[in-house]
């Protein structure tokens, strides 16, 4: 992303059907962004369709703060509430994160493993439901 680096994520316990889970994405500010962004988390089902998403203005220390005011070295721990429907089928669910412009919705360019990320989505991992 250039201005922000995604360090990883955590989740509050095992992911289960019919529950809302708090996923936390962990970011570091590499340089003050030149635009105002919204952080998002998307969960795609085994069929590739979007199952759940959460888009939030970024927060620092629990307070909403424009990315335009970030300083190099600051950390962002963004909470995303993701609901997994009760009738979700068994299979592998893919988790992706990213940032888009607050004005206009254009996604920020993203890289993963030194290459452009497909659709500017950063792949975080797979959640398997049995």
Order of helices and strands: EEEEEEEEEEE
CATH topology: Immunoglobulin-like
* CATH hierarchy, class: Mainly Beta
Question: SS-based structural class?
Answer: mainly beta
For the biggest β-sheet, the strand order reads 4-3-8-11
Gap between N and C termini? 34 Å
Strand content: over 45%
- CATH architecture annotation name: Sandwich
User: So how many helices?
Assistant: 0
Radius of gyration: 15 Å
Helix content: under 10%
Question: Would you write up a description of this structure?
Answer:
This protein has strands at 4-11, 19-29, 37-44, 50-56, 59-60, 63-64, 75-84, 91-101, 111-112, 115-116, 122-129. With 130 residues, the protein is an all-beta fold. The strands form four sheets. A four-stranded antiparallel beta sheet has the order 4-3-8-11, with no helix packed on it. A three-stranded antiparallel beta sheet has the order 1-2-7, with no helix packed on it.
């Amino acid at each position: 992303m250039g201005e922000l680096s995604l360090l990883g994520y955590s989740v509050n316990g095992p992911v289960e059907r019919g529950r809302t889970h708090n996923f936390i994405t962990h970011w570091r500010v590499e340089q003050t962004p030149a635009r105002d962004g919204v952080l998002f988390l998307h969960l795609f089902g085994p069929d590739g369709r979007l199952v759940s998403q959460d888009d939030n203005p970024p927060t620092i220390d629990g307070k909403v703060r424009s990315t335009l005011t970030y300083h190099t070295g600051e950390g962002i721990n963004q909470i995303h509430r993701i609901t997994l429907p009760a009738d979700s089928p068994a299979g592998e669910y893919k988790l992706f994160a990213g940032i888009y412009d607050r004005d206009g919705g254009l996604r920020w360019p993203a890289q993963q493993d030194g290459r452009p990320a497909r659709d500017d989505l950063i792949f975080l991992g797979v959640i398997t439901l049995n």
